[in-house]
Structure formats: structure tokens, C-alpha cells
Design brief:
7 helices; alpha/beta; about 140 residues; about 50% helix; Rossmann fold
Length: about 140
């Protein structure tokens, strides 16, 4: 199982994005049986694609279609209340603050499915949250 972060999904949907080609090449080989994403990633993807500068922004309905397309090839992963709270505790114990919690939640979902590879363009933050997973955290 592999896991994809928001930073990989956004370039798949945005053809003018710097990382579009590499992210799309990865996308072309995915199936629901071997690829996962956190439910929160879907919300982040929606927020990002609908808030881009006007020239690149997608409409909410277009982003909904993009997300529905993503779900044809990605298995969504959720956390229980206890898993969510444990992730908050672990992140606080690491002294991480602000938006790092979102990366921690993504990584908790990746752990939950025992992802062999965790694809992100945000390697530095992911490795700071989960140094034990550093060898699994890669770019497309």
C-alpha cells in the first residue's frame, strides 16, 4: 500500500503546476487496492484548488469532480477518536505546532495502512513528524 499527500494530489489536478508531470506519472499506475489517502487530504485538496490564484483556481464543482475521480483510485483512510487524540498527543510531545498537526494526521493514516511508500512534496515536514518513517517518505 502507498499513501498520497495533498501536495501530490493538487499537482495531479493542476496541469500547470511545477510537479504535475511527476505526480501524474505516479497517478497513472495507481489502483484502489494499492493506494490510499487520508480523508483530511480530500478536504485540503478541495481548499487548495478552490483558493489558488484566479488564473489557476478551479470551481467548487470542478474540484468535487476531481475528488470523486481520485476516489476511484484511492482508498480513503480515517482515524478513530482515540487515534486522532493519540496523534495530537504525539505531535504535542514532539513540540510541533500549527499546521504540522495536519501532516501528523496524514502520517497517522499512512501508519494505519502500513504504507510502504508515503508520497509527498513536503518531505522535510513529514520527516520531522515521523523520523522513523524517513526511508518511506519520498517524492513522486
Amino acid at each position: 500500500m502507498i499513501f498520497l499527500d495533498t501536495s501530490v494530489l493538487v499537482p495531479i489536478a493542476q496541469v500547470s503546476h511545477t510537479h504535475h508531470r511527476a505526480s501524474a506519472d505516479l497517478w497513472n499506475f495507481l489502483t484502489q487496492e494499492d493506494a490510499s489517502v487520508s480523508i483530511h487530504t480530500l478536504a485540503e485538496t478541495y481548499a487548495t484548488l478552490t483558493a489558488m490564484p484566479p488564473r489557476f483556481r478551479l470551481s467548487p464543482m470542478d474540484v468535487l469532480l476531481v475528488i470523486e475521480t481520485f476516489l476511484k483510485r484511492l482508498t480513503p483512510v480515517t482515524l478513530s477518536e482515540n487515534e486522532y487524540l493519540e496523534t495530537l498527543r504525539t505531535t504535542a510531545a514532539l513540540g510541533q505546532s500549527s499546521g504540522m498537526i495536519y501532516d501528523a494526521l496524514h502520517l497517522a493514516c499512512a501508519r494505519k495502512v502500513n504504507a510502504e511508500r508515503i508520497y509527498t512534496w513536503n518531505i522535510k515536514h513529514f520527516q520531522a513528524i515521523a523520523p522513523d518513517l524517513a526511508s518511506r517518505i519520498v517524492t513522486p
